[in-house]
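Trying the structure run again after the queue cleared.
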Amino acid sequence: MGVCSGRDKVVSLREAAQVIRDGDTIAVGGALSARQPLALIREMIRQGRKDLASVGGAHGVDVDLLVAAGLLKSVQHSYVGFENDFGLAPNYRRVCQEGGVEILETDCNVILQRLRAASFGVPFLPMPRIAGIDLLEGNPAFRVVACPFTGETLTAVRALRPDVALIHGLKGDRAGNVHLPHPHFMDGLLATAAARTVVTVEEIVAEEEVRRLGVSIPHYLVTALAERPFGAHPTSCYPAYAYDRRHLAEYVRLAKAGKETFQRDYLDAYVNSVTEEDYLRRVGDGEHFARLTGWKDGVAAWQEVFAE
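Done. Tokens:
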């Protein structure tokens, strides 16, 4: 756990991405199609980060984008895909099949226990025996041990201490206190276990408002905080906006078309050499984003969003 002093943590998105260094182990917040720190990830790609190791639970477009852009040397996630909507992540699948990244097998329970060990300040924690699958052979952070009290066979998992946690929240204050909407996923544990934590938020507000809503991540865990509206797009940041199914469908279509097509028609068009403002303009007009933010206006509103 890193303890960060200072009463003003607010930086630009560019400065926030500079906290991540080549070779770092990054722990990506959010999950699946919800509250992923994608504005921060796009800025990392623009800045040319490399040789990163990514760890976390079940993820989607964030890890797929990092792999496609060549930032990752290893991946340790329980799942990478678009759930039942669009299936497995195409870039991730292709790069893994080609041997372009090292795959360390894990699952969500193991990641949680490893993060708990780091937050408790111990080198490992035991958990019920992992048996009947090859998980133990696919990750050097697992060991079989005997309980010193009962002799029961257990699995010991090494503490996971990421260099940087990347998190997107709903609101934060200048001191670095962050409010996350539910569900929090692993984000609190990521911030506690990591040496540094970089957060983007939809809006910077007064400290009193964050305290009224509830402090999910306290200021002393936050290294840098940047305001970035739609910073989780194309994933959701409820209750502010739903995930952008139309854009995700385009993403998956281009990813399935192959490396060269994805590089030209997605990375070059939406990420490389463009600002976040450019990115949002290319995604859609005001009416499109009004639909995403208006998901909560009734059944017909959210059905329209997810029918795109």
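The domain at 13-105+161-307 is CATH 3.40.1080.10 (Glutaconate Coenzyme A-transferase). Worth checking whether this holds up in the mutant runs.
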